[in-house]
Amino acid sequence: MSVVTSPPPVSAALLTDHYELTMVQAARQAGTAGRRSVFELFPRRLPAGRRYGVVAGVGRALDAIEAFRFDGAALAALEGVVDADMLEWLASYRFSGDVWGYAEGEAYFPHSPLLVVEGTFAEAVLLETVLLSVYNHDSAIASAASRMTLAAGGRPCIEMGSRRTHEQAAVAAARAAYVAGFDSTSNLAARAAYGVPSAGTAAHSFTLLHDTEVDAFRAQVQTLGVGTTLLVDTYDVTEAVRLAVEVAGTDLGAVRLDSGDLGLVARDVRAQLDSLGATSTRIVVTSDLDEHAIAALAAAPVDAYGVGTQLVTGSGHPTCGFVYKLVAREGADGELVSVAKRSTDKASVGGRKYALRRRSPAGTAQAEVVGIGERPEDDGDDRSLLVPLVAAGEVVGRASLDEARARHRASVAELPRAVTMMSAGEPVIPTVFEQ
Amino acid sequence: MSVVTSPPPVSAALLTDHYELTMVQAARQAGTAGRRSVFELFPRRLPAGRRYGVVAGVGRALDAIEAFRFDGAALAALEGVVDADMLEWLASYRFSGDVWGYAEGEAYFPHSPLLVVEGTFAEAVLLETVLLSVYNHDSAIASAASRMTLAAGGRPCIEMGSRRTHEQAAVAAARAAYVAGFDSTSNLAARAAYGVPSAGTAAHSFTLLHDTEVDAFRAQVQTLGVGTTLLVDTYDVTEAVRLAVEVAGTDLGAVRLDSGDLGLVARDVRAQLDSLGATSTRIVVTSDLDEHAIAALAAAPVDAYGVGTQLVTGSGHPTCGFVYKLVAREGADGELVSVAKRSTDKASVGGRKYALRRRSPAGTAQAEVVGIGERPEDDGDDRSLLVPLVAAGEVVGRASLDEARARHRASVAELPRAVTMMSAGEPVIPTVFEQ
């Protein structure tokens, strides 16, 4: 997903760290760039206190792989970074390897091998930065969004955070929130690029623009119909609710509350709406909501939650800390050798990984089983987690957002019930390595 | 700044919330859309514990204003959002008003009027979402980056966080960090789009690709020269440093440490390098650094800091919480009227704002003076803060990144010395309203 602003667009292949290119140049000269290699994208842990994570960005990552080409402008921008021979190689670069990964919307746990990328060292290492960027951002948003939709317990959640994050991250955030169960977004680019349903109410500026609140309500109802959502907290809520029903009638779609003690105010407004006969008018609340505030409103007469800042910043965890590590590569004899860094505090587990979710006969998840070097055995009730995404350079694993939403619902539904607890806790299932 | 990936690019004007467009449609039908209006972009407060903030994104915001047009694809995407009459109006939309703002790199405080946007309601409200997105993101990064460069006390800081944030936010983050004193970035798109100097070392995967560590070092030195930075913590640091100097000689540019107790290891490595005669070889440290970790390494023999996650996530504060509020608008009589929301917990101060930094005769900042409705009086040593950015729709306030860097240095240098304290504290100068 991308958006045109000036300065002129830059090739997707430049969404990359300087060292990826210089490493490939060095490996090419050393004769090692063509060694078959397996990279793995995975989390060492969940953010502190989180019980599960949710994978998002898979579709965007596939877009990035397809778009990862060095055009003339990109090559010109790389003069001084790499040498002429390397520029020539980059000009015909195209990922021709294989990728397997968790499906978009899937739950994940510490050490889940979310992506397995196999190709030559050169072609696979070049994708490191952009794959991590997409996964670290989108999954952070989806992981927070999933907790919010669980806390909302079936009441719709509307994504409204565009203004609190980078303008293009906002588009990806709207998409990721939708994967994790949000119903709609305020972001029009997400509507245009991904078909996420968009929705909106009105801002305080609209009320303030008019000479009186009733003028503002009349203007809005006139053009958007009585089904619209009127913002009722610019001046006095009780008076505004009275005016809103006076202007729109008892078929008024909804009112929005954006300040004050939302639970208390919602109760008063519900009673007032009911007493005015507007029994089907819904109450939408906004104002720095997160999963905890949403859960705290469970008993309040609230019909929908608009979530902004805390959604687009991952509710305290704006990035997932995924890493992309070389876990195996061809040796001088042509055989694949497992490799891993030995540093004490950041050691990795070498070897190609496979993964399945172990489930009880009743279908409840029991463990994240990661096989090293070979597939873990399916006990009959288990579910394999790695699906083919790219085969010989061709994208083969594209899923629709509806499929990702369905995957998210099913994946979370089979987790132990502790997944719905908003308090800090351990991952709801353990990760087990099998060799 | 923008980057091409599939799906196809979306017009910059869609980086907007749904309600901005429906509000304009309603105001147009009510005859109020053309009322002259003044919007203000400002922070209600600094993030908890922060002593100052730094404005960034000004240049990107000007880019966004210039690119904010609805092309055919954008209009097609808006069918179902607004009516045909509104689509026709959008087709010729172009901001024709005036904008004043703080210069890029300037320090800011609670209620600093960072942007003042004047135009018709319709043209000014449409910019709300994208202006907030750019300012909230870029200033969060610059505010964190500024503390890091202060903590580094003149030692170079390298931005390396691309992989931990949205791929296009990464480009803006590299730019914002550069404004706030970082020396370079790993991000090649920031180099291409904005001319930020790029730099890189090597990853553990490069060492692991080769049969031995010495093979990897030889390959890197061969292509990048002895001035390169060798990563020495893949296996055993002492052995790696020995090999590094053996391969590159005593003119080796630098070694990088990415794990362990960085202060302790840096001391050992410095002693070892010196004993090997590599007295000018520098030590670069990376590994989840933030401003506190940087400050804690002040006494260690470290020559440069590579900062990733904590930079691109604003070191605990990934967004600034800036808001964009209507503060004045034309009334039925054609006169400009101050307006403000009255909600108890989110009240705003109505009226057009002016700002200056009150300074002592010695040039030390003493207060952020915000004038309501008129310019505060300059005591002779003060500095006016609002500069013209857009006049009658034309960008007039474009500054280079070098100018923004100079502005940042000068602005921070005139703040009280408590600005260098990394502990939590109050804003280093108070904000004073004058009426």
Automatic annotation (TrEMBL), chains A, B:
GO molecular function, one term: glycosyltransferase activity
Stored InterPro entries: Aldolase_TIM, N/Namide_PRibTrfase, NAPRTase_N, Nic_PRibTrfase-Fam, Nic_PRibTrfase_pncB, Nicotinate_pribotase-like_C
Gene3D superfamilies: Aldolase class I, nicotinate phosphoribosyltransferase
Source taxon at top rank: Bacteria
Span of domain Nicotinate phosphoribosyltransferase N-terminal: 14-134
Pathway(s) where this gene product acts: Cofactor biosynthesis; NAD(+) biosynthesis; nicotinate D-ribonucleotide from nicotinate: step 1/1
Keyword Phosphoprotein: yes
Keyword entries, A-Z: Glycosyltransferase, Ligase, Phosphoprotein, Pyridine nucleotide biosynthesis, Transferase
Reactions catalysed according to its record: 5-phospho-alpha-D-ribose 1-diphosphate + nicotinate + ATP + H2O = nicotinate beta-D-ribonucleotide + ADP + phosphate + diphosphate
EC number, UniProt record: 6.3.4.21
Enzyme class: ligase
Transmembrane spans: none
PTM (free text): Transiently phosphorylated on a His residue during the reaction cycle. Phosphorylation strongly increases the affinity for substrates and increases the rate of nicotinate D-ribonucleotide production. Dephosphorylation regenerates the low-affinity form of the enzyme, leading to product release.
Keyword Transferase: yes
Nicotinate/nicotinamide phosphoribosyltransferase domain ranges (all copies): 157-346
Family recorded in the similarity comment: Belongs to the NAPRTase family.
Function statement: Catalyzes the first step in the biosynthesis of NAD from nicotinic acid, the ATP-dependent synthesis of beta-nicotinate D-ribonucleotide from nicotinate and 5-phospho-D-ribose 1-phosphate.
Protein name: Nicotinate phosphoribosyltransferase
Taxonomic lineage of the native organism: Bacteria, Bacillati, Actinomycetota, Actinomycetes, Propionibacteriales
